[in-house]
User: Fold these one by one.
Assistant:
Number 1:
Amino acid sequence: MDLENLYLKRQSTREYDPTRQVADEDLLKICKLAKLAPSAVNSQPYILHAVTGDKAKEFAKFVQVLGANRWASACPAFIAVEEGKPAVVERLGQRLAKTEFVPIDIGILSAYIVLATEDMGIQSCIIGMRNEKGIAAFLGLDEKTKFPLVIALGYAKEGYPVREKNRRKFEDNVKLYK
Ligand SMILES: Cc1cc2nc3c(=O)[nH]c(=O)nc-3n(C[C@H](O)[C@H](O)[C@H](O)COP(=O)(O)O)c2cc1C
């Protein structure tokens, strides 16, 4: 798909076809493509935990916090993004630039994930509402492990419309100087 159409077609999908699994090869290919994302000093401070099959059915409850994301019950796969430790040089860069680069790296990674996913004809939704402690316990990791984002993946239910993009006025977000 050409890039402009990909950007227009990618949307947060909140109705999945529970009968269609995402193939493991596709899930791993999405992770492989996402790993091409840029990161500060190429630190790549994250681990992608791809959860599918029966495990995904169990996992859904960790993104159903305070009544949010009920639709996730029908979602056949998730990628939980674990925040890794930045490389020493990234830590140094963060201190010098007085900027936390790790969340920025993870945001860019997530954009790569959802665009690669859509390009493969699979839909997605980035999820910020999540139970990090629950996810850590589920994956057998230390309870302090951070999961800044989870990404839901699956095939949209038949007839799920591609919505018109709802964005602020161009001038609100873009300034041109010359
Ligand atoms: C950091 C982040 C957290 C988000 N968390 C949720 C969430 O918990 N549940 C949800 O349904 N959508 C979530 N979204 C999706 C946004 O609501 C969505 O991207 C936005 O409304 C624009 O719509 P679009 O993605 O369809 O273009 C999140 C998006 C981002 C980038």
Note: The pocket of flavin mononucleotide is lined by residues 11-12, 14, 68-69, 125-129 (CB under 6 Å).
Number 2:
Amino acid sequence: MESIFTYFETIPAAHRAILLVGGIMFFWLLEGTLPLFKFSYKKWKHAWPNLFFTLTTIIINFGLAFLLLKSTDWVAAHNFGIINWLPEIPLWLYVTLGVLLLDFFGAYLAHFVEHKVPSLWKVHIVHHSDHHVDITTGNRHHPIESVIRFSFTILGVLVVGTPIAIVFLYQFLSVIFTQLTHANIKMPRKLDKLLSYIFVSPDMHKVHHHYVLPYTDSNYGNIFSIWDRLFGTYMELDRDNIVYGVDVFPDAIANGKISELLKQPFKKYQKPTAKF
Ligand SMILES: [Zn+2]
């Protein structure tokens, strides 16, 4: 565990880049051989806006990285945050708790708030308005959303008190899970179900991309499914019944245009068609 901790403390930027790009390539190929849905779409044409938003997310995270480092330095210097206030615990438990709680504050909470506050939902719609969820959808986030999510990560670091090694480990796992849960791949149902007891499984996250409530407002989790199970936001819907998109933005052509997607947060709020 100590060597893992040390590795992530100084993980080379190249390793992070290889994980992101290699992961996209790996799942892209897997989608060709083992697809969940047989989409009749032009894969590259569909990918282009999503890759654009992946790039803006990377640029924003890179540009703001100094704030993350400042936050981790501050909590370490002041011994601040939940995991530092606990009595002496083994390193593996310290790391596990750090990742678990960072997943709550930095991802689950951020995502939940984005769905519940109308002005933030209009920003987050860009992620949901993809009619063909695949490996490229994972980081399809409006630049404003990238800033919102980054702010929640900082909040998580401050509240949880995570050192930089745990933040980098968390981000590493987060990339893997974002790719696994969005990729258009068919995982055996039983394995998917088994995985979903602790982790967010591919089918579990696909339910969140169903076009209509109450499913859109469920399964907010990023790495661990336990937050959804704990707070009652866990839902199931058979993969055969899933229809991707957002009920109030059904225009597939507009939803594939970068210029339209960039304007999305400034459009008028529209009430969902179904309310439960
Ligand atoms: Zn969402």
Note: The radius of gyration is 18 Å.
Number 3:
Amino acid sequence: MKIVLFALAALAPLASAHFKLNYPAARGFVEDNLPQFPCGSFDTPSSNRTVWPVSDGSISLQMGHISANVEVLIGFGNNPGSAFNTVLRKTFTEQGLGAFCMTSFSIPEGVNITDGTNATIQVLTNGDPDGGLYNCADITFSTSAPVPDAGVCTNGTGVKVVAATSTQQPNETTGASTSTSASASATGSKSAAVSALNAGFGGLAMAGAAALAIVL
Ligand SMILES: *[C@@H]1O[C@H](CO)[C@@H](O)[C@H](O)[C@H]1NC(C)=O
Ligand SMILES: *[C@@H]1O[C@H](CO)[C@@H](O)[C@H](O)[C@H]1NC(C)=O
Ligand SMILES: *[C@@H]1O[C@H](CO)[C@@H](O)[C@H](O)[C@H]1NC(C)=O
Ligand SMILES: *[C@@H]1O[C@H](CO)[C@@H](O)[C@H](O)[C@H]1NC(C)=O
Ligand SMILES: *[C@@H]1O[C@H](CO)[C@@H](O)[C@H](O)[C@H]1NC(C)=O
Ligand SMILES: [Cu+2]
């Protein structure tokens, strides 16, 4: 299995891209530091917060792995530190490379949000054999937040969401256990690998999926 993962990494240059939080704007982005809890090495809130809607918000990512688990948490206040205690979207599996925009966020019942409430969104993903990746965005809630510019919130061709095979947080699992191959074997079929092939991820990703299918 390890050998296959190394082969995948060698085949797919995008695999090193991990993931990127594009909207709301991340505190910062240093690719090599994404594994650093809680915010990919950016521990200080930005003074430049994105005004984000109280209902029907969206969060736009760039995905660099053919499959990754994703979870979205939030911490309220000016500086939640590492206390991202409220789940905005529980763990699911995303498949496909490129733009991925999650939509229809709303604040959980019982949380008291008013115009001007500050908070920080934490996006967790896996996708790497070593486990969790983190990126955070500082926001100010507003009932009159502007909609994101055209093109900010889109999905790439072949990007899709499926139920996660694990309910664990993405930083408690590795990409290897939740990859296309894992879900294919868990469901007792090759359907996930086949759909990856059909989704047109490109020759490199197809070669990787084919390698996994042969091992299985
Ligand atoms: C502040 O954030 C906005 C929206 O993300 C961005 O367009 C702008 O460049 C940022 N300004 C600074 C000084 O960081
Ligand atoms: C929210 O954060 C901004 C700085 O980013 C600050 O100016 C403002 O006072 C904060 N709002 C509250 C309610 O603390
Ligand atoms: C919600 O927060 C606002 C501002 O802090 C406060 O005035 C209001 O009483 C709170 N509402 C509830 C139901 O706690
Ligand atoms: C992107 O795809 C996901 C999963 O199907 C979907 O929930 C989301 O609404 C899509 N985003 C856009 C901008 O259509
Ligand atoms: C994973 O992230 C959650 C949410 O921020 C955090 O509570 C937990 O401690 C993290 N686990 C690890 C192993 O870092
Ligand atoms: Cu990665």
Note: Residues 1-15, 177-216 have pLDDT under 50 and may be disordered.
Number 4:
Amino acid sequence: MNNIVALLAAQYFEQVDPPNLSLPDGPTLISPAIQNAIFSSMFNEDTASPLPPVSYQTRVLKIIIARIEESISDPEEDEILDSLLEKWTTLLSTPKSSALEQAQKLTYLKYTAPSPATTKVSSESTGRRTIITSENRSLILASGTTGFRTWEAALHLGTFLSTTSIGKSLVAGKRVIELGAGTGFLSFLCAKHLRADNTLVTDRDPTLLEQIDDCIGKNGLEKTRIRTGIWEWGLPLQVPSFAVEDEDVAKREPIEFDIALGADLIYDADIVPLLVSTIRNLFDNYSLKEFVISATVRNEDTFRTFLDTCGKFLSFTRVGSQ
Ligand SMILES: C[S@@+](CC[C@H](N)C(=O)[O-])C[C@H]1O[C@@H](n2cnc3c(N)ncnc32)[C@H](O)[C@@H]1O
């Protein structure tokens, strides 16, 4: 796939606001090869599934078609590809959700995992290094959880784990557990692209874990390598699928982990003691060797309390702090 189209497709599957998409210029878009690549990588159910919501697809294709039309100087020579026009007609006749429904609905987002080799989006990276989550960017807090979207701290930690040699060595070949996983973005990254031996994705919210279970299949991952478990901090870990799914995994009991990950978990002073006791529990009872957490520091006092409490039983290094 052409690099310009690869970049556009990567942004499109992350549902970047249409005016902010890196759209090729008109003369480039006129090319039938480019239009064909746009159709097959962004709008064709058979080759690009899961596609973004119909309303989003419609907004993007509208801009693309308008730009092609503006650039047509010779109608005999230049044209809009039939497949794009047919898709446009189908999208127009497909019922759309209301704005309120859209604001509450979860949709599949396809992230492009950060690549250590190059910062450019190549066809190889969009073809192979994707992470599919089920989420809604506009849901800050819904049904009592903040986990229905992937937060910036998870994206930053994902970049650290994928692009630095220290980050990659933390995960490769290791048994990973993620706490407060939300959409499971980091766990999918570890299982799919960072060669984790196995990954346990945990959160306290069963609805989030159902979405993650669905996305395990969407990401083409086997449940023998990544599975979900409920872990509300301060209570026992519940891993219902652990023993029944796979005999080999069951034989590895007692459950042990090499590394635990957490992103954006330090936002509420009330839950810091529970989080810290869970981290301690992991070190004391699950053979944990390292815990890596990324945080958006919303409140310096809460963050300081977390560091001070951890500092009583752990030695830690702060990476990339501002
Ligand atoms: C801000 S979200 C972060 C989600 C994800 N780590 C990310 O960065 O995208 C916080 C997550 O912690 C989970 N959480 C909050 N309190 C928890 C608790 N006491 N036990 C377990 N999980 C909890 C929430 O359900 C939510 O998924």
Note: The chain has 16 helices and seven strands.
